[in-house]
Specification:
By secondary structure, the chain is mainly α. It has 1 helix and no strands. The longest helix is centred in the middle third of the chain and has 33 residues. 0% of the residues are buried.
């Protein structure tokens, strides 16, 4: 059970970091269009 929880946390962490990277890229593109 602990192993399943650990894997689940790793998957959530990877999803969150990839989502953060994607939103940062969108923000950067948006700022470039504005300037």
């Amino acid at each position: 059970m602990a192993i399943i929880n650990f894997i689940h946390n790793v998957v959530l962490f990877i999803n969150n970091s990839s989502y953060a990277n994607g939103s940062a890229l969108r923000t950067q593109r948006y700022c470039e269009k504005r300037s």
